[in-house]
Amino acid sequence: MIRLGVLISGSGTNLQAIIDAIASGALDAEVVLVVSSKPDAYGLKRAQEAGISTMGLIREVYNDREAADRLIANEMQRAGAEHLVMAGYMRMVNAPLLDAFPDRVINIHPALLPAFPGAHGIADAFAAGVKVTGVTVHFANAVYDEGPIIAQRPVEIREDDTLESLEERIHAVEHELYPQALQLIAQGRVSIDKDRKVRIS
Asked: Could you give the percent of the chain with pLDDT greater than 90?
């Protein structure tokens, strides 16, 4: 079993998917702390309803990003987190967090990286007119939406899709793929080779 700390900023639907996967036995993990970059994020309520400790940070804390990440790293370590899971966390993670959890900070992105990085991956893919986009789970590093890729799943962009319908289908895939990728880590099947590529055993 792995002990997870989860970082959120909003409604926490990926957090809920992780909580549900743990409850069903599909994910051999425990969420030990949820930290939100917004003190009123609905995801904090989801965590509290599941009996998980929470911490909400006000915007001013992030005026010094390095200090904010040191605070989060300290709280996560105190809670016993082994891996950090970014689940709709709309902040760049910096050296204090990455150094405290080397190759143990995981992110999900709603596109097939390296295509369409950034905060608007779904809208950018839709606007570009590509026929396939998808979801990526990867280890985070100091470059936004970069880092070794753990898992990807394609999502077709249909002729009759709207941005809203595409978003709905991508989020549904996120809620399946994230717990599955975390379970691979829990099983000890994920490693990073000397070329910084992920290997699944």
From this structure: 100
- Pairwise CA distance, residues 186 & 169, whole Å: 26
Could you read off the pLDDT of 116-145 as tens digits, one per residue? 999 999 999 999 999 999 999 999 999 989
Domains of the chain: 2-200 (3.40.50.170)
Give residues with Cβ within 8 angstroms of 126, minimum separation 6. 133, 157, 161, 163, 166
Q: Locate tokens 């915007």: which residue?
A: 59
Catalytic positions: 109
Helix (H) or strand (E) holding 48, with range, is helix 42-49
Tokens of 76: 């996560």
Q: What is the dihedral of CA 63, 66, 67, 71, to 10 degrees?
A: 120
